[in-house]
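Protocol step 4 of 6.
Sequence for Molybdopterin-dependent oxidoreductase (Streptomyces bangladeshensis) entered exactly as in the expression construct, tag removed. Do not edit the line below.
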Amino acid sequence: MSNEAGTATTAAEPDPAAEASPHGIGASLPHADARAKTEGTFPYAADLWAEGLLWAAVLRSPHAHARIVSIDTTHAREMPGVRAVVTHEDVPGTPRHGRGTPDRPVFAAEVVRHHGEPIAAVAADHPDTARMAAAAVIVEYEVLDPVTDPEQAFEAEPLHPDGNLIRHIPLRHGDPEAVGEVVVEGLYRIGRQDPAPIGAEAGLAVPRPDGGVELYLASTDPHTDRNTAAACYGLPPDRVKIVVTGVPGATADREDQGFQLPLGLLALKTGCPVKLTATREESFLGHAHRHPTLLRYRHHADAEGKLVKVEAQILLDAGAYADTSAEALAAAVSFACGPYVVPNAFIEGWAVRTNNPPSGHVRGEGAMQVCAAYEAQMDKLAKKLGLDPAELRLRNVLATGDVLPIGQTVTCPAPVAELLQAVRDFPLPALPKDTPEEEWLLPGGPEGAGEPGAVRRGVGYGLGMVHMLGAEGADEVSTATVKVHDGIATVLCAAVETGQGFTTLARQIVQETLGVEEVHVAPVDTDQPPAGAGCRGRHTWVSGGAVERAAKMVRTQLLQPLAHKFGMSTELLQITDGKITSYDGVLSTTVTEALEGKELWATAQCRPHPTEPLDASGQGDAFVGLAFCAIRAVVDVDVELGSVRVVELAVAQDVGRVLNPAQLAARIEAGVTQGVGIALTENLRTPRGLVRHPDLTGYALPTALDAPDVRIVKLVEERDVVAPFGAKSVSAVPVVTAPAAIASAVRAATGRPVNRLPIRPQAAVVTDR
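Step 5 output, structure tokens:
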């Protein structure tokens, strides 16, 4: 990343950290675990160990679709060192699981529905023995033709007892007879992306004396995982405990329950601790991916470029199982028109099962796919009308008080016009020099085959939006406890730190509220009350809100004796820089003195206002809050080779309130860079349902050499009054917006339609130069 990103922010907005205290909200505190991760002492799940440890391995299907004729585990069981082999017959409880819809078997029993589906698991005294024993399980298959085209799923034989259609949403808003003077159409395809976590899935299961089991996992939703595991094992939830170990980065609910559940089964069967560390190939085959999506659009506008009607068909490929596809479809349909005012919208959305790898929650699910399509439509509309693409967008942008196509009024801050104007007016980067010394600036990188004369520069725009928290009636709640003893504060909250900075935020909240400098955040396990999944900015809002409320309750306990002593209310006392003072200066003492000999604690919950499911016409107040982003992309394209270099991405985002400036900038830059991968390189290929090259060589992630200059040109701090601290989620919306902006810039450079992500080289080649 360019260090100038910070310069751009400073030039556009005052630095919030400039006047902030060294602790508390607004300060750039480093991550609490930064030093341990840097020094290599951070305890990841793959590092765990226990006395008498056994190793696990999983046998997975080599086919995308097959009928299981027989499973013979005899040879595997007889191998020296093998302690247990489990199949579907050894699942004592509920045999199915799933993040959203529990339709996925722990082990395939009669039918295999995707490449890599678990068939059996083995525990042995050495990892090589476990792998060889898993390979020794003999499975006889009757291979079936896979259904890999989601359009064919409507007419194909049912792939699952629940059928092939997971959900259909027909959104109806406005007048179906409305037409515009100008009409543009497009067909768009979004490929399959993998979360590609830094560390592959791993875990340790330890049997308990009471017949239960403890699972040590990099879980981002431990209570849901605990409940699923207990149901699978046929145990009450209080006999299954999940202890969260270090999560090596999470850009989704990245942990796959299919890795977790065999661990506990093997530990319960052997009476020994069992460890499973997935290979990178198993990681690619096992966890959920971003939904590949087919989108058909028709935009109507008047002669001035004002949108009249949007018609769209959105088809999500859920893969073999439903997972969270119903939620992703709701987001895709709801945001199908983007952050624009559209008086008439008619959207059809479907999510279907196929024999492709399962799809599920990946950052910005649903919203990312439609953003790429509706922004392409806006470019087409601008070209047809002869308007500047930014000007066309400005004529249609959403604002607070406008109504979404789902009928919900936008009550939160929606400064979309301000964001777009900020990136449009930001100075463009200088053109590269045409000298041999600067050839590394050409698309294709150092030693590339490109020629300067074949390079064209393009500028494009993207406007994106995402929802925060759950949707459609999801009960979002989190509980936190704050304790203070001997001048040290401890926070207990089951919100998992996945890299989003919750532990740092919790420290800042307590420091600001109580004036206590030393704050510890306790490790997470399921003995604590639930806090929910770590996605969509939940923990900043819900868990941070719970910590704030608990801290304020402790603050009242701390101040009440002092207020009573001086005959005043606690509201007349304030805590600043570790000191307690009254409004009139009569009282002045330190927090340390006031806490001496005391042990204070409080527990509180935070539950945002309820939402409702979309009705039969796709209408309803489905979302708690929305976040918006504008990105201007500058790219260089070699129009002979089709190679693309992203020169710069200028970002403006509404963040509600900056809680930690350094952390916020890092989250935006990371999200933008993830968007670069989606736009240009990341595509998990699955011919006939088989994952090709499930490794980090075949799956091309962007590296530091691919990361463009990221200029954070404006952060709009218009606080959302219903959110704790007024802050908004910041990570997902740049991921959603960046691919659309990059595709827009490539269109500007080449004049080609660019209707597929990631952008293939042939889509950027210009033959009629």
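Step 6, annotate. The CA atoms of residues 234 and 280 lie 31 Å apart.
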